[in-house]
Design a protein that fits this description.
2 copies of one chain form a homodimer.
Chain A (H helix, E strand, L loop, with lengths): L1 H20 L5 H10 L8 H9 L7 H13 L3 E4 L7 E4 L6 E6 L5 E5 L6 H6 L4 E12 L1 H22 L1
Parallel strand pairs in A: 3-5
Antiparallel strand pairs in A: 1-2, 3-4
Chain A binds a DNA duplex (25 and 25 nucleotides) through α4.
DNA sequence: ATGTATGCAAACCATTTGCAATGAC
DNA sequence: GTCATTGCAAATGGTTTGCATACAT
């Protein structure tokens, strides 16, 4: 399987990072990384905790948060805070580069493939800032909610007309 | 003053929104909008609360949160969650369009002017999503922290050499 | 007069922290 | 053997909520 290759690669990268930082290579840390790279898409801490509770190696919330911090620092995981109370995460590799469409009405988050990187002039202006990754959040109203709103507005109109009479 | 003109404009827009939604036009709501449009840049709820406590019309935290929700909904204020625990806000008008450079090392957030809008082909693909605004967050290491890290790494090297002896 | 909006304080809940026990080195 | 890491449970703190009072309509 192709995903196993990726898993090995990120594990290697994680080990290198742990060695440099002189952190220990615990089974919990590898299990968490492995689990995160078993699926694409967004996840939050609660779902990760529950999923891992049912897996071979159960880990505590504290360890989950600790390990996520390490994975964020070495760039293997990306963190998003779209507007809800819970932070969302996703693996950094094996996902296509994408922006996020966030509906401010229903909260739905959709991925939107968009591979426009920085132009040379932008790169130049950013030269002193070492980019590790970037996130584009596009807020608006999704098509479903637009329709819902239209229906709602029609209702309101009818109501105000009848009440005015 | 030019800013007063903007204040009047956004107040008008807010009134229109309140009327449509049949919300009341309370002095607190206008005071909060006015205060937010008195300065550029980011702010959080705590600083807004403290500043307004010292102003002519004191408002409670509850009202602050209620009103910010309204201002978000009608698009007069933008909300950011850069990674720290507190949400950051900024006024939507009178600020140049800008992206955000967020240093993952020290947490500093810098604005970066960047007026590249969506290309026609992107617009087309987004046609069913009604964009109200978008935020570009660029994570990385700022120049200051890069320097700090270099110094740190040199130290580590020296230490490991001496300990190896 | 009516019912929405405010202020206060308590509740909520994701995340962080303190500490004893574990296990990587 | 040493000390970083884990798991547990308690603490934290930004945000939300419930309810009595105030006030916009």
């Amino acid at each position: 399987m192709d995903n196993n290759k990726l898993k090995d690669q990120v594990k290697e990268e994680f080990i290198t990072y742990l060695n440099i930082k002189k952190h220990r290579r615990t089974p919990e840390r590898f299990a968490i990384l492995d689990h995160i790279y078993s699926a694409k898409g967004h996840f939050d801490m609660e779902s990760l905790y529950k999923e891992m509770s049912e897996s071979s190696l159960r880990v505590s919330r504290a360890t989950l948060y600790n390990t996520i911090d390490l994975l964020l620092e070495c760039g293997l995981v990306i963190k998003h805070q779209f507007g809800a109370n819970v932070s969302q995460y996703e693996r950094a590799y094996g996902n296509e580069n994408h922006d996020h469409l966030i509906c401010t009405s229903c909260g739905e988050v959709k991925e939107y493939k968009n591979s426009n990187l920085f132009t040379p002039s932008q790169q130049k202006r950013l030269q002193r800032f070492k980019i590790s990754y970037y996130s584009m959040y596009i807020y608006g109203i999704c098509s479903k909610c637009q329709k819902k709103n239209q229906v709602q507005e029609k209702k309101n109109k009818t109501n105000s007309l009848t009440t005015k009479k």
